[in-house]
Amino acid sequence: MVVIGGGPVGLYATFYAGLRDMKVALIDAQDELGGQLVTLYPEKMVYDVGGFPGILAYDLAQNLVEQAKMFSPEIRVKEWADTLERTNDNMWVVKTDKGTALKAKTVLIAAGIGKITPSRLGAKGEVEYENKGVFYTVRRKKDFEGKRILIVGGGDSAVDWALTLAPIAKSVTLIHRRDQFRAHERSVKQLYQVATVYTWHELKEVEGDGNRVTRAVIFDNRTKEEKTLDVDAVIISIGHKGDLGNMLKWGLNMKGRDILVNAKMETNLPGVYASGDIANQEGAPKLALIAVGFGQAAIAVSVAKKYVDPNASLFAGHSSEMDKFKK
Questions:
Q1: For residue 61, what is the enclosing H or E element?
Q2: At 131, phi and psi to the nearest 5?
């Protein structure tokens, strides 16, 4: 099986396919496995996954990665699943943007919202100082301890990061291009108590010494008056985009950005399945929950196992009764 997508659902599917004694290759376009857990909200708590009253998103991702690696799958990160082609011997070949060709009898698409890319402002110096002081999310809160932080944005994410980082940062300044916030009212009230807030302001330029950010130039979009702030980090929190690449050309039946599947998580292509946020299951409500994706992945893998080996059982029994775990 080739699993496309290294988020929580793809990671769990990789583990479960290994548990069913299937050879697995996992492809993910991001630079780190974990999907939205590490890209969008790594420092936030997740409360709706079974077995954890509450767990940090980044920690949950690392647990899932460890679990996925139990049966030694082939893992490829920073590779985009570009094409999906059927061969004459009824196999599937997934080709990536790096020239890799992976051939398998089955494919499970667990791509979530697609490759996650941050929305950029286009300010001078922004791209130059990416990961040198310019960030689009907070992967590890401790990296911002004692820093002078500028946050750009007016939604829940921007305001939440300001509230989260204020207790450990040297200072927090937040700018927003309007005077109305999209964040929760209570959070906005708290924001004014812990941070310096400039409404009607935008980021003009990020400056530094070539290795790290040292200053940021902001301006009032009404008067054009500029201010220069001494900063160590700029967090641009204006949203992210999901890119499905060429998936729309693969011949899948889709509804918008969703892949249509039946109760067995089968797509219209034989041997190709979908699970998680990208799957739209016929007759079932769509719930974008990790817990739902886990169940869908288990169903898809079980059906795929029987597709590969018609003599296999659809349900192999409970893992607590199996003796095939690899230590």
A1: helix 57-68
A2: 65, 10
Enumerate residues 6+ apart whose C-beta is below 8 A from 197.
Answer: 173, 174, 175, 176, 191
Q: Determine contact, residues 225/198, Cβ cutoff 8 Å.
A: no
270-309 pLDDT tens trace: 999 999 999 999 889 999 999 999 999 999 999 999 999 9
Burial class (CB in 10 A: 0-12, 13-18, 19+), 24: buried
Fold of 120-238: FAD/NAD(P)-binding domain (3.50.50)
CA distances from 297 to 24, 73, 107 (A): 14, 16, 12
The pLDDT tens digits for 164-181 are 999 999 999 999 999 999
Model confidence at 229: pLDDT above 70? yes
| Position 93 confidence tier, pLDDT thresholds 50, 70, 90 | very high
Asked whether 140 and 161 are in contact (CB, 8 A), the reply is no
Q: Please report which confidence band the pLDDT of residue 127 belongs to, taking 50, 70 and 90 as the band edges.
A: very high
Topology agreement, domain 2-117+241-321 and domain 120-238: yes
pLDDT above 70: residue 323: no
User: How many residues are recorded in the chain?
Assistant: 327
The predicted model gives 217-229 an average pLDDT of: 97
At residue 125, the 3 state secondary structure works out as coil
* Per-residue pLDDT, 326: 46
Which pTM value belongs to this model? 0.82
* Pair 304, 2: CB distance under 8 Å: no
Is CATH 3.40.190.10 the classification given to domain 2-117+241-321?
no
Q: Maximum Cα–Cα distance for the chain, whole Å?
A: 74
Radius of gyration of the chain (CA): 22
Q: b/e string for 178-202 if b means 16 or more Cβ within 10 A?
A: eeebebeeeebebbeebbebbeebe
Q: Please name which of 117, 104, 101, 28 lies closest in space to residue 65, comparing C-alpha atoms.
A: 28
Distance of CA 203 to the CA centre of its chain: 26
